[in-house]
Design a protein that fits this description.
single chain; mainly alpha
Length: 191
């Protein structure tokens, strides 16, 4: 009821979104977030959150648009650089991938972290694989596996196995565990 009487109240919308996401109601959360963007198209945090939700829902093109917008709003943000590079390297549709740009962005992110962040190195490896440089993909994925927490090693090791076999990693257009691992990119902390 409060939302109906205060549609412009950003704090109230954010609280509602947090609860809706916790309840698994991504669609309703998106409605609120898109309403925020209608009022504040330059709200970086909202673009990031909308991108995350689209990614979780397997809506990769929409997620990519939000990642691009977030990057445009703050190009020097490690989170934005890495998020965009990840999608450009792993998007399920060929026409939406840009391996050259993904590699450039991922390299920039890796330099920003002194090549010590598992999530960023995971992205760097994916970008090298997208470019067909599986030797470098294996090198950086090995580094990522070494840095990541024990709980996350299996996801990273799966990608390592792909790169060792000369295969790229692709996000799926359906909701799955990989979109959950995308949170590693958002926090840019080793997992």
């Amino acid at each position: 009821a409060a939302l109906a009487t205060s549609p412009d109240d950003l704090a109230l919308r954010r609280k509602a979104v947090k609860q809706l996401v916790a309840d698994g109601n991504d669609e309703a959360a998106l409605v609120h977030l898109l309403a925020v963007l209608d009022q504040r198209s330059d709200d970086l945090a909202t673009h990031i959150q909308v991108g995350d939700l689209f990614l979780r829902r397997g809506q990769m093109d929409q997620a990519l648009r939000q990642r691009e917008k977030a990057f445009q709003l703050k190009e020097d943000s490690l989170e934005n650089i890495n998020n965009l590079a990840w999608l450009l390297a792993t998007h399920p549709r060929e026409k939406s991938r840009d391996g050259k740009r993904a590699l450039s962005l991922a390299t920039q992110a890796a330099r920003m972290t002194d090549y010590k962040n598992a999530g960023v190195l995971d992205t760097l490896a994916a970008a090298y694989a997208e470019q067909g440089n599986f030797g470098q993909a294996v090198r950086w994925q090995n580094e990522a596996v070494e840095l990541v927490s024990a709980a996350e090693k299996p996801l990273y090791a799966e990608r390592l196995t792909l790169y060792q076999a000369g295969k790229t990693f692709r996000l799926s257009s359906r909701i799955h565990e990989e979109s959950e691992s995308q949170s590693k990119v958002n926090s840019v902390t080793p997992q």
